[in-house]
Amino acid sequence: MKLGELLAIKGHNVFTSHAGDSVLEVVKKLVTHNVGAMVLVDDKGKLQGIITERDILRLSAANTGGFGNLKVSEYMTRNLVTANSSASVDDAQAVMTERRIRHLPVVDEGKLSGMVSLGDLVKAKLADAEFETRHLTEFVMGKYPA
User: Fold this and answer.
1) Would you kindly state where each structural domain of the chain is located, as residue ranges?
2) Quick one: fold of 3-118?
3) Which residue has the higher pLDDT, 116 or 67?
4) What is the pTM of this model?
């Protein structure tokens, strides 16, 4: 399965914020949308970075004074790891595992077209495995084609 196919099922909606926003604003957006990462864009929608729950947790341990005056631009990851929609789920999972990341922005022709999490990839692979198992079982039991 390709990431484009996964996004067609999951959806292309990505919640974004701006690098100039406060960390507190981003935390509120993460909670409101129940997501684990926020892609940061400029006014034209160009990717600037990403900040994750894990980044904020580390920041919280280092800064007990609150997040209201801290700018996301100071704490975001700027060197984004991205993929395009033609990448396979297996390739994306390998990259995410190797780089130890849980969220992967999908970018096509310089534009953000979606976001996948490691959980999305695992879910897609499980669905493929269940489909294959069902069809192999039907074949062995003489019920193929159904």
Assistant:
1) 3-118
2) CBS-domain (3.10.580)
3) 116
4) 0.79
